[in-house]
């Protein structure tokens, strides 16, 4: 009975883990020069219905096109020629923001510290537990999904700001600097009531429900330098 209960508990746990993994639009990229590792990781991820692309070398990876959906990279840190750390630096330099999970057959504390300082999700030493790898992958894909949503929202915000008239943009920037309507009116030489009309139209176009929300939008768009002192 205990064995049966243990099997059932394991099945429930595995099912819950599978359900928690990201959706079918997610892809895991695996770069490892060991064919056995590639086969093993590929089989594991496909068993959970996770898309996976396998690469035997970094040059093979660099020649490929990145997936459109949430992505993370499982990367062997030691490979012939270009190392995993070299690729991490190259991706950062080209602004290709991909969450990286490093794996290695040899524990190396300085390497792990260097990789983590540069933003790696995890640094696993072979042989690692499948669950540790899956947990790291889930975190990496979740972070990439969040980043993509943030980028999408920022594109929409920029489009809304671009729809403003030159005067409305000017007033949004002044509001973001903490200037009052009467101060803005004095600075640009128009009536305070006119400032309020422009501000109201700008808020409607920006879809801002309040002045604080408009200020947060301005912060996201970096309309006001960090060094600017708000009134």
Automatic annotation (TrEMBL):
Pfam families associated with the record: GerE, Response_reg
Signal peptide: none
GO biological process terms on file: phosphorelay signal transduction system; regulation of DNA-templated transcription
Keywords attached to this entry: DNA-binding, Phosphoprotein, Transcription, Transcription regulation, Two-component regulatory system
SMART domains (alphabetical): HTH_LUXR, REC
Domain HTH luxR-type: 157-222
A molecular function GO annotation: DNA binding
Keyword Transcription: yes
Modified-residue entries (4-aspartylphosphate), positions: 76
Residue span(s) of domain Response regulatory: 27-141
Protein name, UniProt field: Response regulator protein TmoT
Gene of this entry: tmoT_5
